[in-house]
């Protein structure tokens, strides 16, 4: 695009090209995609791995706000890449340390029933986190 003014020609720079594939959203050198398909946590993680990624890791409030607002937009609950380990601590699928959380009131509850335990973490459409049974189905990948 060129803007012409008497005696001067000013060229405007092209907008920066996104480093992400066309159906992804770029944020702080990461690419995010919301896949609106109900899957178990394991199936969702496997689908993300097939695209050379993981379920989303959230390591600061800026990421939390971005995912809750720009990606989910109040559409549905979605799995994130946080899962409870054998000794009870939580770990991100991509190996990032857990130093930020956004648990909902009273969470995590770690409820055990005849179906299993609440070892996987979902983000509600309002941004709060909840531990849930990994066999439950939520929107696929962030």
UniProtKB/TrEMBL annotation:
TM region positions: none
Coiled-coil region(s): none
InterPro entries, alphabetized: C-type_lectin-like, C-type_lectin-like/link_sf, C-type_lectin/snaclec_domain, CTDL_fold
CDD domains in the cross-refs: CLECT
Top-level lineage group: Eukaryota
Gene3D superfamilies: Mannose-Binding Protein A, subunit A
Ranges where the C-type lectin domain occurs: 27-134
PANTHER family: MANNOSE, PHOSPHOLIPASE, LECTIN RECEPTOR RELATED (PTHR22803)
Record-given protein name: C-type lectin domain-containing protein
């Amino acid at each position: 695009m060129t803007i012409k003014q008497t005696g001067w020609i000013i060229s405007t720079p092209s907008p920066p090209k996104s480093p992400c594939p066309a159906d992804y959203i770029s944020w702080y050198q990461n690419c995010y995609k919301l896949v609106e398909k109900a899957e178990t946590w394991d199936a969702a993680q496997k689908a993300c791995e097939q695209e050379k990624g993981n379920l989303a890791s959230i390591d600061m409030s800026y990421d939390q706000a971005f995912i809750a607002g720009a990606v989910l937009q109040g559409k549905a609950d979605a799995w994130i890449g946080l899962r409870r380990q054998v000794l009870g601590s939580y770990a991100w699928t991509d190996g990032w340390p857990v130093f930020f959380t956004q648990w909902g009131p009273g969470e995590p509850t770690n409820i055990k029933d005849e179906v299993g335990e609440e070892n996987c973490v979902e983000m509600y459409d309002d941004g709060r986190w909840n531990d849930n049974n990994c066999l439950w189905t939520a929107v696929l990948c962030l």
